[in-house]
């Protein structure tokens, strides 16, 4: 099928580069984006949606066409959440494929030209956005706002500037989630949690700045370089447990612990930084998220999240266990089937542990990923104490 698609598009004048697996595609596209990505959901060594997520974060304007034999509502939603611009379902019509490619390439060109304009429509423009920030480059853009690399003219340092659309164009849940993220980050004091430096609203545009971390996300690093060693995973667990001690001490639950939300400073497993507190909340806080609406990344939710039960810090510990397993294996624990099947597995199926794990790491991850919160470590502090007692 890959060769057939390559030939068909080649005959229409497109220059095609194809890859037979996730690893080779991720490595080749790490530094040079294509004009259009066409990816199958099922790849020999993983999910094509992981490639989509990685490239979408790195290249916000990249058009992506996902092809799949899965046509359920949950499957399509999962693809669009990963960053698909459009979907084509199997059996594939080559005429439909060519037409979709033509449209997506045109849209991609228009988006690139728009993002290349000298004015990002920020109060104060590029040279003094919000009165003090010189915009250097766009880091990423999506439904929850845009993030820029900027220079703080007042403090003389590089920062990440997150900006939402004008207040008039915001949904209420977007505005409240942005305020919540700013508030949550300002409460937590840890070298392993990104810091808020400044925040406010100017000309109806909410914004905040945070430290700009020099490093790669755990998701990207594992995808590009392969699984981490057990020693690296244990260091990662220890340092992220320290981050969660600070988060929980501030009275917060992160609720979105996943590989994409951990940035490794200088690409070091000993220097992870937890980011994206847009879903963080206090136990018992039911604002923003509507009843019956499940937010977060399905493959890293805790069972109690899926079951709609009250949450505490042990929910973050479960997600941390899944994150550590991803670091060990290079793949998420739950990746097969529809969204409903995935949620059923998360809520009721014991987490499988790789046989090759050492007994010590197996014990830690096994306890972190117990379906019942009462069977896990009582807190992030208890996890730290267990790791130290084991000599880690």
Task: Describe the model.
This protein is of the alpha+beta class and 392 residues long. It has three domains: 2-115, Rossmann fold, CATH 3.40.50; 133-211, 2-Layer Sandwich (Phosphorylase Kinase, domain 1); 215-389, Orthogonal Bundle (Transferase(Phosphotransferase), domain 1), CATH 1.10.510.10. 40% of the residues lie in helices and 17% in strands. A five-stranded antiparallel sheet has the order 6-7-8-10-9, with helices on one face. Strands 1-4-5 form a three-stranded parallel sheet, sandwiched between helices. Strand 9 and strand 10 form a beta hairpin. Helix 8 (230-249) packs antiparallel against helix 13 (380-389) and helix 10 (313-329) crosses helix 12. The protein is globular, with a radius of gyration of 21 Å. The N and C termini lie far apart (48 Å).
In short:
The protein has 392 residues and is α+β, with helices and mostly antiparallel strands.
Which key features would you list for this structure?
single chain; 392 residues; alpha+beta; Rossmann fold; Phosphorylase Kinase, domain 1; Transferase(Phosphotransferase), domain 1; 3 domains; five-stranded antiparallel sheet; three-stranded parallel sheet; 17% strand; globular
């Amino acid at each position: 099928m890959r060769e057939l698609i390559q030939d068909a598009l080649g005959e229409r004048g497109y220059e095609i580069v194809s890859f037979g697996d996730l690893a080779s595609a991720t490595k080749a596209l790490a530094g040079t984006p294509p004009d259009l990505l066409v990816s199958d959901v099922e790849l020999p060594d993983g999910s094509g949606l992981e490639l989509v997520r990685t490239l979408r974060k790195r290249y916000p304007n990249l058009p992506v066409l996902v092809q799949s034999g899965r046509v359920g509502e949950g499957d399509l939603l999962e693809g669009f959440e990963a960053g698909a611009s459009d979907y084509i379902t199997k059996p594939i019509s080559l005429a439909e494929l060519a037409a979709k490619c033509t449209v997506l390439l045109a849209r991609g060109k228009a988006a690139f030209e728009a993002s290349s304009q000298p004015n990002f429509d920020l109060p104060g423009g590029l040279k003094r956005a919000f009165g003090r920030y010189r915009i250097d480059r766009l880091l990423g853009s999506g439904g929850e706002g845009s993030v820029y690399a900027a220079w703080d003219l007042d403090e003389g340092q590089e920062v990440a500037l997150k900006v939402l659309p004008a207040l008039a164009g915001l949904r209420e849940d977007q505005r409240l989630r942005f305020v919540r993220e700013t508030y949550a980050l300002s409460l937590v004091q840890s070298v392993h949690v990104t810091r808020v430096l400044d925040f406010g609203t100017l000309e109806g545009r909410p914004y905040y700045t945070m430290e700009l971390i020099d490093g790669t996300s755990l998701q990207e690093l594992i995808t590009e370089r392969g699984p981490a060693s057990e020693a690296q995973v244990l260091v990662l667990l220890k340092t992220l447990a320290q981050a969660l001690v600070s988060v929980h001490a501030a009275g917060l639950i992160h609720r979105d612990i996943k590989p994409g939300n951990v940035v490794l400073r200088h690409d070091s497993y000993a220097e992870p930084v937890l980011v994206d507190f847009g879903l963080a909340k206090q136990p018992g806080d039911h604002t923003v998220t509507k009843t019956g609406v499940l937010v977060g990344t399905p493959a890293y939710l805790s069972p109690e999240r899926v079951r709609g039960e009250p949450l505490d810090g042990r929910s973050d510990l479960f997600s941390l266990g899944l994150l550590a397993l991803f670091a060990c294996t290079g793949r998420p624990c739950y990746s097969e089937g529809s969204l409903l099947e995935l949620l059923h597995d998360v809520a009721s199926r014991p987490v499988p542990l790789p046989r090759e794990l050492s007994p010590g790491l197996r014990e830690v991850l096994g306890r972190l990923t117990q379906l019942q919160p009462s069977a896990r470590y009582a807190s992030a502090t208890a996890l730290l104490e267990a790791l130290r007692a084991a000599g880690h």
